[in-house]
Predict the structure.
Amino acid sequence: MSASASSFSPTVEHVVTDGEAYVRELTAELAKANRGPDGLSSREQFDRRPLNLGLFLPSMNGGGAGNYPTRLMTGKHATFEYNVEVAKAAEAAGLDFVFPAARWAGDGGTTRFNDYSLEAITLTAGLAALTERIMVLTTWHILYGFHPVHVAKMGATLDHMSGGRWGMNLVAGRKQKEIQQFGRALDSSQDRYGMMREFITMVQDLWASDEPIDLEGEYFTGRQCLTLPKPVQRPNPLLVNAGQSAAGVEFTTKFCDAAFIHGGRDNDLDELADVIQTFRTKAKENGREIKLVLPVAFLCRSTEAESNDLRRRILDAVDTEAATNILQGYQGSRSDTVPTRGQLETIVLGIGGYKLYGSHDQALEELVKLHRLGIDAFHFVCWNPLNDIDVIGEHFMPEFERLGLRTVR
Ligand SMILES: Cc1cc2nc3c(=O)[nH]c(=O)nc-3n(C[C@H](O)[C@H](O)[C@H](O)COP(=O)(O)O)c2cc1C
């Protein structure tokens, strides 16, 4: 049987006579994206929905989903089974995406905060195969030793495993404690985002080219590189970045489809509005539109009193050493200055997330306000994921739908 006939039956032997036609057929046969009832892929739905909702996976051993450096812990450990349970619950509740952090070193302290974490690429490969509709994003440390050919092929494979529901959260990496494990050093003069630019351009070239290409860059090279299969999603799966520096913002607005931004200090809406403005202006200068995704520390409860009580219990059990290490990591260097209670509070209650306090109704009102300020998506950093997903699905989702924020346009 010639390769141009449809020959993909496991029980039928066939002889390939035309390699080009065979590869074309393979590509066409395999590149079928999962589509919703409206015929749109997950990515198209993400692009067209006014408000997307995501979840940060509990892949690390720290308090809550690994974002609360406190000695108080929720019931479950950061096992693979727990992450599958949470991803499936998020999918059943109608959320749009899940993703884990990528960590190679934690922040120590009494709790050995996040010293234990599941590796993000392999974790999301498992989740891609075990879920059906939700987008699965892999957080990927691009500069810890990968080559564009690795990422092009592994990314394409992940996109196939998920049926076109995969995306990538590219992180440059910046922690000395992590980088040194790969025999590398963090040099402040290093043009991290210059390297990222070159890297992702090469990955996209590999995804676009049907012929072998040479990679000739300042940081990466390769001879006769060919990636097959291509990702299911063309021209590429969703690309996200969380850079906040000027170089990070420039990179994200030029090369990515969405930006993870910080929650601002102490829920400062003016500061958040400035961040939104910065990203929007830069994107416009680069002739693009991107989605802005805000991390939200999920601390609301049925009543305001319960939320206040949770906040107090988390704070009372603060892992001061871990919180201090995180803070000093943010500030870029170790310092002997003891952090203030206010600084510790910002870190222990969901690190860089916008803090969502109060009753469920108050929280909902706050989320709508943030959306009106310019936020296109929230990713929830839960204290107790399985409990909080129920609240999102049963309490928040109907109201977002009523407001038309979930309608794919
Ligand atoms: C929501 C969010 C998630 C992030 N996740 C990770 C992560 O999993 N691993 C990591 O090394 N860095 C992570 N970062 C850090 C960013 O990639 C970035 O390095 C940081 O915001 C500083 O910006 P800059 O790189 O432009 O200096 C995250 C940041 C944000 C806001």
Remarks:
- Residues 101-102, 139, 171-174, 242-245, 248, 260, 262, 295, 352 surround flavin mononucleotide (CB under 6 Å).
